[in-house]
Amino acid sequence: MKSELSTGKAPSPFGAYSQGIVANGFVFTSGFGPTNPETGDRPEGVRDQTRQALQNVEAVLREYGLDLTDVVKATVHLQNLKRDFGEFNRAYGEMMPSPRPVRTTVGSDLYDILVEIDVVAALRG
User: Fold this and answer.
1) Could you list the residue range(s) of the whole structural domain that residue 76 is in?
2) Among 4, 29, 70, 118, whose Cα sits 20 to 30 Å from the Cα of 16?
3) Which residues contact 14 (CB under 8 A, 6 or more apart)?
4) Whose CA is closest to 67, among 122, 2, 11?
5) Using alpha carbons only, how large is the chain's radius of gyration in Å?
6) Can you spell out the DSSP letters for 74-112?
7) Using an 8 Å Cβ cutoff, are 47 and 33 in contact?
8) Closest listed residue to residue 122, CA positions, set 74, 50, 85, 78
């Protein structure tokens, strides 16, 4: 059994997908980029884009009473892996609490953004 999570505090889907799904003791989020859901703006630079993407992810988690401390797995796509990894990693490390989740970071051809992040979070108790 699965149920959908949706919030106006994160960007709306651009296609046929959900912001998040709850299933089998976990929350799975879609990939979120750096669009501010209130203004539609995107920050400049991978550091600020990483921060906004994680804020978008956390907004979906909060719909189920979770936050970044509940994340067990993150998948990150960077438009320019070699150039941006260091700045991305610093911003991610500042926002993601310890113990940090396992993570896969790959270079991807993204659509006018520098970073996209999706996560899997474990439900509490």
Assistant:
1) 2-122
2) 70
3) none
4) 122
5) 14
6) EEEEETTHHHHHHHHHHHHHHHSPSSPPEEEEEE---SS
7) no
8) 74
Query: Distance (Å, rounded) from C-alpha 70 to C-alpha 28?
Result: 11
Is residue 10 within 8 A of residue 104, CB to CB? The reply is no
Residue 61: which CATH number?
Answer: 3.30.1330.40
The model's pTM is 0.96
pLDDT tens sequence for the chain (125 residues): 899 999 999 999 989 999 999 999 999 999 999 999 999 999 999 999 999 999 999 999 999 999 999 999 999 999 999 999 999 999 999 999 999 999 999 999 999 999 999 999 999 98
- How many independent structural domains does the chain possess? 1
